[in-house]
Each structure stands twice: as C-alpha cells, then as structure tokens.
Design brief:
alpha/beta; Arginase, Chain A; 8 strands; eight-stranded parallel β-sheet; 10 helices; globular
Length: about 300
C-alpha cells in the first residue's frame, strides 16, 4: 500500500451506543491535529468531511435493537463512501463515531475486495467481540453487532444493506479481548474466529500473535482493514470511552502493533472508533489515537 496519499472520512455516528458523545469524535480528532500529523509525515490528505444521512426508512421488527432504522441509514451512506475511498487506491481512514460505523466501512471495502478478486482480512482491536446478532443483544446497542454482520450473520438480512461478500471467519483476528457476553462466546467459538484475549497476549506477546496473522494476509495477497476501538487500550492511558474495561493494551503494546503493521505494508484502511471527547482528560485520548495512527503510517523514533 502506498501511504503517500490518504483519504479521510468522518462518520459522526452516536446512535449505536446509549451514551452520547461519540458523534463528536471525527471533528475532535481533526481539531487535535490529525491532518497536521499526516501532513508532517509527507502524506497528502484528501479530507472528505463527514458523511451525512438524509432519509431514514421506517422499519417494523421485534428485535431489541436501539435506533435500528437510523443505524441502517448510516450504514448505507458509509458503505457507499468507504467503497469510493478504497477504490481511489489511497490509504483510507474512517473517523468514528461508535463502532457501528464498521457495518458500512467494512462492507464497502468488502465490495471493492470482491471486485479485485482479493480476500479481505480484518484486524479487530477491541475489548469486546462485538459479535451479537440482532436477536442476542440484551442491551440492544448496535455497536455490539458489526463483527457479526460483516461475518455474514443471517439476522441482519432484510434490514441492513447486503454484504457483497462476507468476511470469512479465518480472515478475522481479534486482539485485546477481555469482555465477552456468554452468547457471543458461543458464537465466536462456533464461527472459528481467532480471538486473542489479554491473557494470551500476556503469555505470548502481541508481536508473535500479530505476525502470525499478518503472514496469513501476505500469503493470500489480501487487503487488510484495521478496526481500532479506543476501549482496546487500557483506560489509564485512554479514558475517553463509555465502555472502559480494566487491563487493556499498554501504550507500548499498541504502538508496537502499529509499527509492525506499517513494516508489513499490508494495511489498506483504518477505523478509529468509540472516542468520546466528553469523557476525555485534557485531550489525552485524542492525542494517543493520532500518535498510534502516526506509527501505523510510518513515524518512528529514528526514521
């Protein structure tokens, strides 16, 4: 992937969660200096602004799914925009918004991958598996469902836009997991998705686990999308999230992951999600996300 140019798209979605604030994420990252950082790295930035929705279709359903109609409208808008972004051939960054933006970002990229005849791989960096179907979520929050959708869960059919090609279970890797509902645990196991929880990371280390996944991507000539949820990081370093779980990735673990991914030259796109500026402490979480993005795109101590 050529990192000389970058497409930037905001998706100010807050309807996937029950706590307000995530919709402020895209503009907060811009104000905090994301574009300036990319420019300092010599990257030409094409900022497309924020995705907007207009028509919200009425839906009749019996699911415990909050704001389903609005989430579907966001997915349609983001899906079209993400497809156009990745088809430009430039590295694409999608600024959330809550994690429900991935319904649209990944489905749009999957369409492009299918056209190119290349498999799509997804590195899901998150404290949660986000693998609920429309019928299994007790909270009804849509941001706990996108991974199930992109993996082809049938419960979304007839509501959300069709996935041109579902992401195969063996092409998904979860890192940083430490909060999983029982229904998700069973589904993840049955699906055969690789999920590295924090115990495994503590025992083996992020480098070996990540390099094993990147080798699969490289051997398959795949496209690699990274979906980074703020809550994957330990709340001591990234407090600006409404779903904090203690014991997350450390500052150095997160940075070494980004640096190794950059060295692989495999990444094609990135989600930055669940930043809630209303919960931040003097902008420290926003700055950390920008620094991690810089590491992904090539910033190093000596280079």
């Amino acid at each position: 992937m050529n990192y000389e140019k970058c497409t930037l798209i905001g998706a100010p979605v807050g309807t996937g969660t029950s706590q307000p604030g995530c919709q402020l994420g895209p503009d907060t990252l811009r104000v905090a200096g994301l574009v300036e950082m990319l420019t300092d790295l010599g990257i030409q930035v094409d900022d497309h602004g924020n995705v907007e929705i207009s028509e919200i279709a009425e839906m009749h359903h019996a699911f415990n799914a909050r704001n389903l109609e609005t989430s579907v409208a966001w997915t349609k808008a983001i899906q079209d925009t993400s497809y156009q972004a990745i088809a430009s051939g430039h590295f694409s960054i999608f600024l959330g918004g809550d994690h429900s933006i991935s319904f649209g970002t990944i489905s749009g990229i999957a369409k492009y991958a299918k056209e190119q005849g290349r498999p799509l791989f997804v590195l899901w960096i998150d404290a949660h598996t986000d693998f609920h179907s429309l019928g299994t979520s007790s909270s009804g929050n849509i941001h706990g469902m996108p991974l199930a959708f992109i993996n082809g869960d049938a419960s979304f059919e007839g509501f959300f836009p069709e996935m041109e090609q579902a992401v195969r279970s063996e092409n998904i890797c979860l890192m940083g997991i430490r909060s999983v509902d029982p229904a998700e645990r069973n589904k993840i196991s049955s699906a055969g998705i690789t999920a590295h929880d924090m115990r495994k990371i503590d025992e083996i280390g992020v480098i070996r686990l990540l390099e094993e996944f990147l080798k699969k991507v490289n051997d398959a000539n795949g496209l690699l999308h990274i979906s980074l949820d703020v809550d994957a990081l330990d709340p001591d370093i990234a407090p600006a999230v409404g779903t904090t779980v203690p014991g997350g990735l450390t500052f150095r673990e997160a940075h070494i992951m980004m640096e190794i991914i950059h060295d692989s030259h495999l990444a094609t796109s990135l989600d930055l999600v669940e930043l809630n500026p209303l919960l931040d402490q003097s902008g420290r979480t926003s700055r950390l996300l920008i620094d991690l993005t810089a590491s992904l795109l090539g910033r190093s101590v000596l280079g």
